[in-house]
Amino acid sequence: MNERTLIGDLNQKIGEEVLIKGWVDVRRDQGKMVFFDFRDRSGKVQGVVLPNSPAIDIAKETRNEFVVAVTGLVNKRPEKNIKISVQNGDIELEIIGIDVLAEAEALPFDMSADGFNLDLVTELEHRALSLRHPKLQAIFKVQAVIIDSFREFMKSQDFFEFQAPAIVPATAEGGAEVFKIDYFDKKAYLSQSPQLYKQIVMTAFERVFSVNKIFRAEPSATTRHLTEVVSLDAEMAFIDSWRDVRDMSESCVRHILEQVKTKCEHELTFLEAELPVMIKETPTLSLTEALEKLGAPTDKDLNPEQERKLCEMIKTETGSDFVYVYGYPTKQKPFYVYPNPANPEFNEGMDLLCRGVEWLSGGRRINDFKQLMNHVEEWGMDPAKIEMFLEAFRYGAPPEGGFAFGAERMTMQILGLKNVREACMFPRDLNRIDGLLSK
């Protein structure tokens, strides 16, 4: 049996007989000859079945998306037929044999690069098929690099990776936006955030991070919200202020952007995506300063339109697509966020905005046990439900803080997608679990 050659390696096999395995991407029957585009995980190549080839009969019966094993000669194309801008545009496979490994039914829509122009609902309804298209594969290859780069950066900074539980006895953020589940006739929840667990683990390992699924029961059908997302979280001990968290998160985002630029050049070009600009020092404003800059009342939070306008102003003034905003009203944030000692009505939490959308949230946390217990009472929390969390602080916890962001939203913003569902392989929202719930 011949050893399989990946399509991406065919340039090294010019003049040789090879065996490739993959899918029929496109078939073009020219009468006496049949042309194919084949694809596998490494790319695409054009093949031709000549009139005298023993494969001519089966070539005429083969359709798009058939899974095939193809034997052929790798030939250099004539100079006039070379396509420099196309992968393997300088070679062609002269097909000797085709073995059909699996047939495919007639496709419900055009899968060619030019014909693939589906509305999002149709794309999601046929997710198992649409994932084969290079546009979607490019999106998720970029997302994989985002997640890998986060993990790579965290480990380079001596952060310890752990896995937080998805089933929890109480919610980290408070509020009603949680999924309740029956747990052996007891009440439990799907985790909104690994926040409490990463703070617990921080008291043992100092620097920790996690890549976890989180769940938000938000009855929202906006282009920015999902009920299940991949959350990338980090927590660090022995900080001096929230600015240490800002600096670490800025370095992390910068590393991710650099890696996407380096490793995803083809995908960025294919998707016509322009990476956001992060200048040497990201502009940083207090919430009050941001609202004053916008000419808005300073007793409220930023709304989505104000976030968009602020980012536009910062971009015009500095060239940065990013801006940090810190110092939010204490009561508007979770119980564990550290209040500003000089003005306790505002906290030392922060958000990173980019292109009008929140990318990342974080800040300093309360580490003093008595202060934490006061907040638990003020926020109406039940101490019994977070006893494990409180125990970590009862027995000594260092000054600490952390940050988190969603992989899907970052993917959406980096690639300029219009809807976060485009950046989620199997999106869950108010109306969908795989298929539409209305069905």
TrEMBL record:
Protein name per the record: Aspartate--tRNA ligase
Q: Which gene encodes it?
A: aspS
Gene Ontology cellular component terms for the protein in this record: aminoacyl-tRNA synthetase multienzyme complex; cytosol
Q: What is the documented function of this protein?
A: Catalyzes the attachment of L-aspartate to tRNA(Asp) in a two-step reaction: L-aspartate is first activated by ATP to form Asp-AMP and then transferred to the acceptor end of tRNA(Asp).
- Give the multimer and partner information: Homodimer.
Name the Gene Ontology molecular function terms of this record.
aspartate-tRNA ligase activity; ATP binding; RNA binding
The residues that hold L-aspartate are: 173, 216, 361, 365
Give the family this protein belongs to, as stated in its UniProt record: Belongs to the class-II aminoacyl-tRNA synthetase family. Type 2 subfamily.
Q: What is the lineage of its organism?
A: Bacteria, Candidatus Vogeliibacteriota
Top EC category:
ligase
Record-linked PANTHER family: ASPARTATE--TRNA LIGASE, CYTOPLASMIC, ASPARTYL-TRNA SYNTHETASE
Which of this chain's residues are annotated to bind ATP? Answer: 216-218, 224-226, 358, 406-409
User: What Gene3D superfamilies does its record include?
Assistant: Bira Bifunctional Protein, Domain 2, Nucleic acid-binding proteins
Q: Where is the Aminoacyl-transfer RNA synthetases class-II family profile domain?
A: 140-427
